[in-house]
Predict the 3D structure of the following.
Amino acid sequence: MGASARVVAERVEAAHRECWSVVLASTVRVTRDLDLAEDCAQEAFVRALRTWPEQIPDNPAGWLTTVAKRLALDKLRRETTLRRKLPLLVEEVGSTAYGGQADDQPTDPLRLVFTCCHPALARDAQVALTLRLICGLTTREVAAGLLISEATAAARITRAKKKIAAAGIPYRIPADDELASRLDVVLTVVQLVYTAGHVAAGPELTRADLTGRAIELAQLLVRLMPDEPEPQSLLALLLMTQARGDARVSEDGELVLLADQDRSRWDIKMLAEGVSRATAALRQGERSARATGGQSPGPGRFALQAAIAGLHVTAPSWERTDWVQVVRMYDAMLVGWPSPIVALNRAAAQSLVPGADLAEVLGELDALGKESALKAYAYLPAARADVLARLGRPDEAAREYDAAIALTANGAEQRFLSRRRASLPTTHGDAVPD
Amino acid sequence: MAQYMFMLFDSEEWYDQVTAEEWQQQMKLHTEFMAAVEAAGARVVGGEALLPSSTASTIKKGEGEPLVTDGPFIETKEALGGFYIVEAKDLDQALALAKLVPSGNIEVRPVMDTSEGAAPPA
């Protein structure tokens, strides 16, 4: 039975979305050469477009992997020097790896993720390479997603691939003793991919393709490491953020803060999955801390972030959020992973605890203003503006909103901040002198 | 297996006040490092300690006669104090071993293949 060209094109496109990393990763295991594997994987998808009209295979991933591997082996046989020349991806290839079909390792994509996120590569390069090799984005799409020029994206990817080959970055999952530190980099990169899509600097607030890819990656990590609480927590965090996506933008494209969101527009099913994953991960972290008498650390960085997101989405309203608990979670983060941004978020949450001393919070925010890391961070003046407005100091608040507006490149955020500034009460004649 | 150069960069103030015992202790740490490399199935192919950068001379070539000046090529707080050439399975093994070097800062660089018939680096 033949299939129409349209159906075939759709199937191939779907296969590209779902199986690209599997096909590429399995091919890398044979070639130990990223460029060659990429060429062959791409060629396999092209061949699918030609061959599938006759019959669409039952197992598209298997079909594509087999074709890509055969192409790679043909090329390697023709250029036998290649294998001698490149001791790059040092994973030993057993004889079965050349068989083709049934031997695919379910962990292959994970090896590739750890290769892309190797700490010896620059963070910028890790993200670009992950988007290119794991998510299957073209160089042009990588550039668009990261708001860099195509030439810069291409240079980053090429340089990173060269370093992988020349420096001998291995194609493997790290050993247990180094997994925790390496996993953290991988999770951070996945979160960065999500963030790049969630707060895209540009006229659009979000880029659904990037947020979708990040969630797929988190799901992949959970599938491949079901016993690790941190991938679980990251997935929970992303799902809970994603579930609120529709309510985050008003009909005229303006950013709607969590405080003002129409909660009935949240994706309840996705939220429920996020909350249950977050709860499970948090418990797992607490259990392992108890079991080792506090030897192993408690909840990880992403477990705490997921817990905060969980407190937000399970609260009946913004005002009735358990701010005391939120502050407690930020405190735990400040112990293990101190950063000016965490301190800023903590101060913002503290300002919302019923009966909070706003003057004291303002003092904390002022102190944070001295942090060079926050110099160009729009959320700091935005937070100061909010506290100043609530303290009845609208003129100072207005100046802070101006500063925040100047610092954000996102159109929706700019409109939001301008509206907040416009809603400040005006003072007559008794304006605070500059 | 690939060869990596470990370049050891440290502050040289240490030399000004080092005692004989501390010196012996430091040498012992390096002997232990070399033993750890062998134990990991890797190999120390070479390595030397260098005298402080105050003993360095630099030759700069431009137009005309090469110019000889006093001091290291790059003046930094930390100076190159020695190096190892280690043959390791891959970068991960090299980095794991480099962490064991008794030095504050270690740059790890793959050694280029310059054997007959080798291609220029890509």
About this structure: The CA atoms of residues 10 and 425 of chain A lie 55 Å apart. Chain A has a mean pLDDT of 85.
